[in-house]
Write a structure and sequence with these properties.
There is one protein chain. The protein has helices at residues 4-16, 21-44, 50-62, 67-77, 86-111, 152-159, 174-188, 202-239, 245-288, 294-304, 315-326, and strands at residues 117-125, 128-135, 140-146, 167-169, 197-199. The relative contact order is 0.05. It has 4 domains: 4-44; 50-102; 112-199, Ribonuclease H-like superfamily/Ribonuclease H (Nucleotidyltransferase, domain 5, 2-Layer Sandwich), CATH 3.30.420; 202-326. A 5-stranded mixed beta sheet has the order 3-2-1-4-5, covered by helices on one side. By secondary structure, it is of the alpha/beta class.
Length: 327
């Protein structure tokens, strides 16, 4: 009789379709496990509110990603229902770009007091020029102006605020050079404005030097060929039993001239190698040494070198070849 109530309850539950006690216990255990799994997933989930989404979009765009690429990355982090539209991303970028422009105007004024060396050039976005200026020591991009033209007046307007710049590295673009000349003219009327040196970048300096070196060695080869021709004339006279003294004197002077031209060319090439080897160190000194010219520092360091020393493996081999050709 002690179990009668339980038996009656079990029969009623079975007849009425009410879950049994065992079913309720199993459901409770299932829900407990599901609740634990949900809490674990929540702990590992990424909190990605709208402020973070805006930061993500602006950062990705500043790294060069397009809006389409940002949308693809956004879909990895967020479910499809929470992904923002392309138009929304565009509005975010426009808003933050306007705020950044206000901040950059303040930073530009502060940087204009500090920058003494600039590397400038032009890049193109959709065929429209962008005037670019980089401070070489910090690699800070301090000038970035979209422009309709890249003539002298446009460059003058971009460079004039940077009144403390003492050295500029640039290529030989006509508009760029005209702008630098106009800035120099402006500074001539200001006694407090520093003088501004302008030099080619290393790429263009090497490019300009290459044809000069080629022409120099072509002249040496021409003199050398004349000396070899004089030797052949001496051999011909001796072979034919003729007096070869005059031809021998001519050959001697020809080889003296050839050796002199060869040694002078070697000295020029050795000096060029020393100068190019000094550029990395000179560039560091120029960037931290009150804006001194890289070329000036390299020239000063080159004068301090022992110029009578010959570069290893250069002159010795060449002179051996020269002597061998005379034998």
């Amino acid at each position: 009789y002690t179990h009668a109530a339980r038996v009656e309850q079990a029969v009623d539950e079975l007849l009425n379709g009410t879950p049994t006690c065992q079913e309720l216990l199993a459901e409770n255990q299932r829900l407990t496990r599901e609740n634990e799994e949900l809490w674990e997933a929540f702990a590992e989930s990424v909190h990605f509110p709208e402020s973070k989404q805006q930061q993500f979009t602006v950062t990705a765009a500043s790294m060069g990603l397009s809006l389409s690429q940002v949308l693809v990355l956004q879909a990895i982090v967020l479910p499809a229902s929470q992904c923002r539209s392309r138009a929304t991303l565009g509005r975010w970028l426009t808003t933050w770009a306007a705020r950044a422009a206000e901040l950059l105007r303040v930073l530009d004024r502060a940087c204009q007091e500090l920058v003494v060396c600039l590397c400038i050039d032009e890049i193109f976005l959709s065929r429209k020029p962008v005037l670019v200026g980089v401070e070489p020591q910090s690699m800070a991009w301090v000038i970035g102006h979209k422009a309709e033209r890249r003539d002298g007046l446009t460059w003058q307007a971009a460079l004039s605020p940077w009144w403390r710049v003492e050295y500029v590295v640039a290529d030989a673009g006509s508009g760029l050079r005209k702008g630098l000349a106009l800035v120099r003219e402006e500074r001539q009327g200001d006694s407090e404005a520093p003088t501004m040196e302008v030099g080619l970048d290393v790429f263009h300096i090497k490019k300009e030097a290459l044809p000069v070196m080629i022409r120099m060695w072509q002249k040496v080869e021409s003199v050398w060929e004349k000396a070899e021709a004089a030797d052949r004339e001496v051999a011909r006279c001796r072979r034919q039993g003729q007096d070869a003294r005059k031809a021998a004197i001519h050959a001697h002077h020809a080889w003296v001239a050839a050796e002199r031209a060869f040694q002078e060319a070697e000295k020029v090439e050795a000096a060029w190698r020393r100068a190019t080897a000094l550029w990395p160190r000179a560039a560091k000194l120029a960037a931290s040494g009150a804006g001194s010219s890289v070329c000036t520092i390299a020239a000063r360091a080159f004068r301090d070198c022992r110029c009578d020393e010959e570069p290893a493996g250069c002159c010795a081999v060449s002179r051996d070849q020269l002597r061998a050709s005379r034998m």
